[in-house]
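User: I want to check something. If I give you two sequences, will you return the structure for each one separately, not as a complex?

Assistant: Yes, each is folded on its own. Here is the first sequence with its structure:
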Amino acid sequence: MNELQIIEYKSERILTTQQLADSYETDKQVITNNFNRNKDRYAEGKHYYCLKGEELRDFGAINQFDFLPSNINTLYLWTEKGALLHAKSLNTDMAWEVYDQLVETYFKARGMQANLQHLSPQLQLLINLETTQKEMQAQIQATNDKVDGIRDIVALSPTQWRKDTGNMINKMALKLGGYEHIKAIRDESYRLLEQRFGVALNVRLANKKKTLTYNGVCKSKVDKINQLDVIADDKKLIEGYTAIIKELAIKYSIDIGA
């Protein structure tokens, strides 16, 4: 289990849905589905907190999250008891093992910090120095991972741009919660391309289909033509589209190595 970013809300340690999913080595959607199927077992304020509106904005202003999408409007925060219910829902050896680790190294750690005040100043200093060093190492590792990811994005191959950009879009969609976000990301990329290059992809697409139909291409093939085929006809559009996907990948902080 990777070292978790410490998050506190109302004086207790909590985990976001993404953190909980990562810890249990499952998908964020699985956690959401477990919750939706068993909502009557969860009590807000006991098992979770649901932040929206101004409360969410205030919370986001205090905490810095690299893994949360910028357009999020609802955030669930899970308590130790909420993590237990999810472990019960998953009911795997892995889930129970991770839950035990979470209790020992994350949730109970806050109480251990409170007990430091009973130790001598010298011992408190040594413990705090060790904690600070571990946090710095974790931050350095996170920064290195992000730099490696950006390096991979920049190295995107222009010869297989359709495959590479498609893979990136899939990862962005998963980062946002699922493959249902693919269309929105593609629409965003096409909109940015049209704005920067002054093109109308749908007009070019319609013209391309008319030309193919006129040249006797069968309807089934014509119907499969899309905006990517239009982009493929223009080298400048390929370069522009690839650059835009790189920018979106960095924006959504996707993990290239995953």
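And separately, the second sequence with its own structure:
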Amino acid sequence: MLSRSWRKYIGLFLVSAPVWWLFEVLNWRLGNWHYDGAEFFSNWGYTFWATLSFTTVVPAVFGMAEFIGSFDFINRFRNGPLIKPNRSTTTVFFAAGAIMFVLMMSWPKIFFPFVWLSIYFMLAPINIWLGNRSLTNWLRSGDWRPVLALWIGVLITGFFWEMWNYFSYPKWIYTISWGGCCKLFEMPLLGYGGYLPFALELYAIYHFMAGLFGEKDAKYVRLVPQEEVEEA
């Protein structure tokens, strides 16, 4: 990704920080996690070091997803269920996302997992309506390779994040109201499932922001071989 365009690669870091701050803002209501040791920083110091750390999220996930997409086994997922981005499908997706968001904000102790679903369900249809790049570029023909590359890539990335966090200080601690048993590091096993839609959210948010800057069919992130990106 760096050799492809160093300017856009730097852009991934610049996009990444506000993207994760969005989840931090939502977490003020949800209380899914907190940072043990944050009290030793001043407000400005905490904001600086947290922002610097958050810049790595999007590049790490997309870089690992591209790496996974380079393996031959991923081609087994090029003929799967079709998802047609027609008006009815996108409307249902958006409505479902909006309902999940309202439930999450109204009863956070029950519906807190929707933070990893609602944003994607709302933003993916918006990208389609605005003509931005979307995973439906592939899913309309049953090609699930980009989705699987993102899913496997984010699980690998998430595993290392959780491992490094476990032996770190300051560190994040999860404080969810249910499903918190059977941990692998600080993360409950069920929580790793949240990484899957989180990767799709990152993809949707990135292409929404790229669309704001006029890249309506941004192909910088390549989750399948280049010749097939051109066709898609």
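Because they were folded independently, the notes below concern the second chain alone. Residues 16 and 58 are 5 Å apart (CA to CA). The longest strand covers residues 33-36.
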